[in-house]
């Protein structure tokens, strides 16, 4: 029973990571292409979904620890998922902050070209993908 719940929990955290990754990509792409609708989507649609996922995963982890009192490996896995969940929530919040700042920036003339930002955003997204792939 515990093993099945851990498998479900792993699947949930990977799906959550995919949502967060998409939020970051969408925010940065919309900034570079000066598109308002993806930014609104990140703020109005994606953020509530990400917040719900974060709460559900946290509750599932807490319930599993209380209900099953896991030992060693299983406990480490659950605690690792809780830490990942916390980090993903922070990244999702940053994606929303990027979207909000981008809404401000796209409505104004470009002061300076985004020379380094595209490369930085590619690196961030790649690192997020790599960290999730290492978990899988």
Rg calc: 17 Å
Q: Please outline the major beta sheet.
A: none
Q: What is the helical fraction, as a range of percent?
A: over 70%
- What's the average pLDDT? 96
The CATH homologous superfamily is named: Phosphate transport system protein phou homolog 2, domain 2
Q: How big a fraction of the residues is strand?
A: under 5%
Order of helices and strands: HHHH
Structural class: mainly alpha
Pick out the low-confidence regions: none
CATH architecture grouping: Up-down Bundle
Q: Under the CATH scheme, which class?
A: Mainly Alpha
Question: What name does CATH use for the topology?
Answer: Methane Monooxygenase Hydroxylase, Chain G, domain 1
Describe what is shown at a glance:
The chain contains 4 helices and no strands. It is an all-alpha fold and 136 residues long.
Please give a structural write-up.
The chain starts with a helix and ends with a helix. It has one domain (2-135): Methane Monooxygenase Hydroxylase, Chain G, domain 1. The protein is built from 4 helices and no strands. The longest helix has 35 residues, at 72-106. The mean pLDDT is 96. It is elongated and about 55 Å long. The protein is mainly α.
SSE diagram, text form:
Blueprint: H1 2-33, H2 36-68, H3 72-106, H4 117-135
Helix pairs in contact: 1-2, 1-3, 1-4, 2-3
Q: Characteristics of this structure?
A:
single chain, 136 residues, 4 helices, Methane Monooxygenase Hydroxylase, Chain G, domain 1, mainly alpha
